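Below is how a single chain appears once it has passed through the pipeline. First comes the sequence as given, then the structure the pipeline wrote out for it. We keep one example in the README because the format questions we get most often are answered faster by looking than by reading.
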Amino acid sequence: MKGIRIATYNIHKCIGLDRRVSVDRIGRVLRELDADVVALQEVVIEREQSRRRKHRDQAELLGEITGLQSIVGAAIDRPGHVYGNVVLSRLPIVGFENFDISASRREPRACIRVDIALDGGQVIHVYNTHFGTSHPERVEQSKLLVESGILEGSHPEHAQVLAGDFNDWFSGSPTRLLGDHFHEATRRLKPTYPAVAPVVRLDRIYVNKHVRVRRIEAHKSRLALVSSDHAPILAVLDVEAQPAESTAGST
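Resulting structure:
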């Protein structure tokens, strides 16, 4: 079986280094990645059109450009305006759930779980999240993922992948807590933020014991380096065979 290609990419509302908003440009980067599943952060969906603001649904447009199905995990959900995480997939989606991981008095944050069907009835659970910018906030959010049942609630006997922008500049306690429960596939990867002259590893991919990392790399094409302030990461993963009684999709 060929490896599953999973990417994570903070698209910065499709604002490039030239300060120009271009969904098409991000879409071209995604086509370069050619991933089976993509975890996107900082996606904007404007459902109302006015003289000053055009209707723009970045999730829908990126799905059209890439031909992938899109699932939205809103962190901010207001009439006419949605902002947060999106998962794109060319593989069948059999379930999903969005979780509020906001810390008090801080910007709303979320984590979306998408259940992906693989060959032979197997399932892989992909989590996409974007942590906050303060250290106490990230500590609280990592504990929510690990201790509140969010991760444990999706059949940990299946393959699990946790991806996103973790905003942990110095690999502090939030990173260590997640690392106690998952293998950080990106731990040896060079920084990906800011894209042009990267100095920190904010973007990460974690996997559980049922996933083997075949290859992982930062995608630094000329187009990717100007399309967002983050560089995307692409991982090629192998999923171990699941016991027959554990191959049913989650609810």
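Confidence is low (pLDDT under 50) at residues 246-251.

See the next section for the split statistics.
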